Each structure stands twice: as structure tokens, then as C-alpha cells.
Amino acid sequence: MDSSQPFQAEQQALLSAISELLAPLAALCIARGVTIQPMEELLRQAFVVAARQACANAGAQGDRVTSRISTMTGLTRREVTRLALAARAAEEAAPPAARSLATELLTRWVSQRPYTDARGRPRKLPRLGPAPSFESLAASITRDVHPRSVLAEMERLGLVTIDGARDRVTLLAESFVPRTDWPRMVGFLGANVGAHLRAAAANVMGSGSEHFEQALMADELSVESLAHARRLIADEWRHLMTTLGPQLQALMDEDQAAGRPQDQALRLGLYSWMQPMDAPARAPAPAPAVPDAPPKRTKRKPLP
User: Fold this and answer.
1) According to the model, what pLDDT value does residue 188 have?
2) How many Cβ atoms sit within 10 Å of the Cβ of residue 207?
3) Which residues have a Cβ under 8 Å from the Cβ of 152 and sit 6 or more positions away?
4) Which residues pair with 168 in a beta bridge?
5) Alpha carbons 153 and 131: distance in angstroms, whole number
6) What is the pTM of this model?
7) What pLDDT score was predicted for residue 49?
8) What tens digit of pLDDT does each residue of 66-110 get?
9) CB count, 10 Å around CB of 170?
10) Which of 87-96, 139-148, 155-164 has the lowest mean pLDDT?
11) pLDDT value at 292 more than 90
């Protein structure tokens, strides 16, 4: 047996998995008119960045790094140099990640007491006054932006409605999906799916326990059962937010009080995907019966 066969089998399995990842990306690009050329450029840059990081982790330095990257990626040395410069320029030109006050406020509103009721649902809040109020909630997130400005932004995004007669604010959505802001929406896609994929890839390359990454599969469901399952999933996410959210906030408060370096980040998500089941493979239809051919009759010669 060729010693390279197991390695080739692993590569083929990886390529098969990657084809599953590329299919929805290709569909998204086609839907938005993105051709393959910029996708190829991004993929080449990603290969060079990943190879350079692998060299750095191995302690490689000096002029030979470019040659090693060329060997690892299958690109020429000149192409490696060009892509490295392009990737560095893109990184320097990228704007810093903007802090979304609306997202932070919404997250705290749906997960923190006393802004949720006994069932864990977000309360209707007085616009002004001590906690629990919208003013106190906004002030708990930032002192740099006036609560009135935060409220106006959330109203613009369609996340809240204001009852002027009672001077009360009602949360309309328990999750922030900025459908009117395409760049922000696909930004969430990149951040959430990117984090999930990084966790899964790190587990595959490591011991398998570096990050929590599990999934539950159920089939043979009806359309009516899927509608019920959506409600169950939403309730489970709400429970996760109201139980884990305060505990994570308590950990951050403990770190701050203890003076520990707060230089680590955690992203946790829950997703679901629903689709029709694959049609079962049908057994080949039996070939139609061919009737037996009638026996040939031989003509008898008359006897003399």
C-alpha cells in the first residue's frame, strides 16, 4: 500500500467538505453580482496569510520564508510577494470595528434583570428615570452618547416603538437583523459564521476539544412540526440569554475588580437550518417481462 494514500484520502475528504462550504458562498456572490475573479484574489491572499502565520509559528524567518510560502501554497514567489503586500494594504485600509450601541443595548435588555420579567421576556420600560428604564439601560452601556440619541437610533432601526402618551419604550425585536443596512448584515454573517468555522477548524486540527462546537440533527418532521420547532428554538435562545448573559457579565465584573487583563473575547451562537429531506433512492424498476418466443414450426415434407 502506498504510504501517501491515507494523506491523499484526508485531502480528498477535506476538499469534499470545502465544497459544502463554497456552495452557499457562491450562491450569495451570484445573487449580488460578485464574479469569481475577486473571490480568487481573496482566496489567494488568505492562503498566503495562513502560510505566513504557519511559518511564524514554526519560527521561520528571513528570506527563505517567501520560498516556503511558495511551496506551501503552490504560488510563485513573485505572486506570494504581491499578495502579501495586497493583504497588508487591505488590513491597513480596513476601518476599525465599530461598536454597535444598539446591539449591546438590545442584548442587555433581553438578558439582564431587572429589564426582563419573571418569564425572561424584555419589559416595557419607562423612557426616563431610575432602573429599570431606557435611560438607565443606555447609561449602563455608554456615558459618551446621550440616551436620547441611542433611542433615536434604535427607533430608526425599527427595534423599538415609543408610546408618547405613557412615555414608555417597547422592544419590537429580540434580535438585531439590520435588513435595511446590507453592509452591517453581511458583517454579522462574516463575524458569526467566521467564528463558527474557526472553532470547527481549530478542533479538527487540534485535539477536538479546543472549542465547543456541536449540532443536533432531526429528520422525518412535518411542516407543522418545523413551525413548532422554531418556537422551541427561540425559547431556548431566550433561556440561554437570560441565564448565561448575566453570568458572563458577572465574570467581566470580577475580572475588572481583580485587575486581571481583559484581553480575551468570546462569541457564542445558536443556529438552525431547515430543509426538505432528500428523496429516498428508488430501486430500479424491474425490466418488463419479455414473453417467450413461440416455438418454431418446421414444415413437414409430404410422404411419397
Assistant:
1) 84
2) 7
3) none
4) 126, 163
5) 21
6) 0.73
7) 93
8) 999 999 999 999 999 999 999 888 888 876 665 678 888 888 888
9) 13
10) 87-96
11) no
Ramachandran quadrant class, 208 (left: phi over 0; alpha: psi -120 to 50; beta: rest): left
* Close Cβ partners of 23 (under 8 Å, ≥ 6 residues apart): none
* Assigned C-alpha cell, 242: 437570560
**β-bridge mates for residue 161, sequence order:** 170
Closest by CA to 45, choosing from 91, 11, 12, is 91
Query: How many residues are given for the chain?
Result: 304
First-to-final CA distance of the chain: 79
Average pLDDT over all residues of the chain: 85
